Amino acid sequence: MTHTKGTGLPVLLPLQATAPRTAGLNLSAWHGVVLAGTLLFYAAAADAAAGPAVPSVAATIWKWTPLLAQGFALNIAISFLAMAIGTIAGVPLGLCQVSLLLPVRAPSWFTTQFFRNSPWLVLLFYCMLLLPFQIEIGGTTIPLPGWFKSTIGLSLPVMANVSELVRGAVRSIPFGQWEAAESLAYTRRQTLWLVILPQCVKRITPPWMNLYAILTTSTPLCAVVGVSEAMTLTGNILNAEGRTDLLIPMYLYLLLWFFAYCYPIARATIALEKRFQVQ
Amino acid sequence: MTPRKPDQPLVEMRDVHKTFGRLEVLKGLSLNVMKREVICIIGPSGSGKSTLLRCVNALIPIDRGSILVEGQEVNDPKLDKLALRRKVGMVFQQYNLFPHKTALDNIMMAPIHVLKRDRREVEAQARALIRKVRLEGKEASYPGELSGGQQQRIAIARSLAMNPDIMLFDEVTAALDPETVKDVLVTIRQLAEEGMTCVIVTHEMGFAREVADQIYFTDKGVLVEHGRPKEFFANPRDPRTRQFLDQIL
Question: Is residue A16 part of a domain?
């Protein structure tokens, strides 16, 4: 609703809340160019300093690439799973936040705020330490590996952010939509599922993708709790090589991997935002 | 529900009071709408006209007084609001079409999901309604692709698809470009001529004079005066009415 001129309804002005935006990654192509350029520069400088006796930086990096790719695959797997769990839990939590019943609304609001405002690393440690090594269901023992526990840890803030996206999107739908549906004798549930939520999907998709990119770039946090993902492996590689001249190129190389993965997502998010704005 | 006498009003408002916070919007308003009657409510902005309409279909609960719609008390905590709203159609200033649905779907949704009617039958009715509001060919258009006047006529068709007994119009031309106002008014006049009971809140004095059986003038939450259009516009009795008409005409 753009204006309410002359309705004589001061208290029925539409809620002008907009969907909260997660802090953006704002990746641009030149970030990648700078990363790649710096990598080449350091590699060349390191080679010049080391002389012909040792294998070149490029050759060393190439040698370890398959292992790094394995680690990176785990990062992607963790990000996928944490996003899925976080979304599946976060959407109902967000819907509870717009419930008319205070006993439903209040705890879901508290849960959302608690996990949204906790540092991700702290949540990660909590999950690592509090979840058991294994669980027994009906006599069968199911092990809970570290990567799975840290996935749960990462899915908690995702859940809270998704919940907040859903709440914000529902609130951002003009009040007139509710009124129109109500006047057509829709129940509240019908209004929500047939009128409000379908309109929310469009509004949520870009910030949801942005949240995914942020989650992906946060998966190296799992290195701190001992998961063998790309960050941990890069450390292991550097230890094995024992060459200080590799330090900067190796980490730059890892950065490039994340950039190559997240940049297309950032571009797609912007493209979607623009498309939805037009309509 | 008591059986209705034939001469009983379709809508009967008695001493309706409504306060928003400290602002008293309706201060004891009473009016009747007979079956097949068309009434226009006019008055300055903020005089409670839109609020009054929203009280009729229980979008806004009233504080004191009584509103009977077809003999059913609206100001009753046990009221079946959904049953009431199925009988009362409403059209809004901002059209409020559902932007994610085509014109045809906007019209079909409520009969299918609320009245649980057969989809094919509803579609036939919806297409007929689109012809009635003279928008053939716009069935598959989304609201964003239609002009304001076209959207408003689809909104009218959407309400009519519920087969209401009464239609409420809340300043339905106030947000429109002047050149599209006429199409909407023609549609409403056609409904009125077909015998639809209509309560119209409007600033279009020419239209009100032409279409209304009764004109009600409200100011600051009270009903100042009412009468048949000819007498009302020719000899307004109350000084407030005269002042308002002088400003607007």
Answer: no
- Chain A residues near residue B92 by CB distance under 8 angstroms: 176, 179-180, 183
From residue A196, alpha-carbon distances to A3, A189, A203 in Å are 20, 10, 11
Within a domain: B3: no
Tens-digit pLDDT profile for residues A32-91: 888 888 888 877 887 777 777 778 888 889 999 999 999 999 999 999 999 999 999 999
**Number of structural domains found in chain A:** 1
Enclosing H/E stretch for A102 = helix A102-116
Domain region containing B186: 11-248
**Which residue does chain A place closest to B91, by CA atoms?**
A180
* A23 touches B at CB < 8 Å: no
| pLDDT at residue A7 greater than cutoff 90 | no
The residue behind tokens 């949520």 is A204
Residue A3 lies in a domain: no
ipTM: 0.92
Residue B175 lies in a domain: yes
Question: In CATH, what number is assigned to the domain containing residue B168?
Answer: 3.40.50.300
Q: Is residue B45 part of a domain?
A: yes
Alpha-carbon distance B228 to nearest alpha carbon in chain A (angstroms): 25
Q: Which helix (H) or strand (E) holds A96?
A: helix A57-97
Q: Is A190 on the interface with B (CB under 8 A)?
A: yes
Total domains in chain B come to 1
CATH number at residue A152: 1.10.3720.10
CA neighbor of A187 nearest in space, from B78, B85, B75, B100: B85
Q: Mean pLDDT for chain A?
A: 87
Residue-wise pLDDT tens digits, B11-60: 999 999 999 988 999 999 999 999 999 999 999 888 889 999 999 999 99
Cβ–Cβ below 8 Å for A184 and B162:
yes
pTM of the model: 0.82
Which residues in chain A have Cβ-Cβ distances shorter than 8 Å to B158?
184
pLDDT tens digits, A192-223? 999 999 999 999 999 999 999 999 999 999 99
Q: Is B46 on the interface with A (CB under 8 A)?
A: yes
Distance from C-alpha of B95 to C-alpha of B158, rounded to nearest angstrom:
10
- Contact between B203 and A6 using a beta-carbon 8 Å cutoff: yes
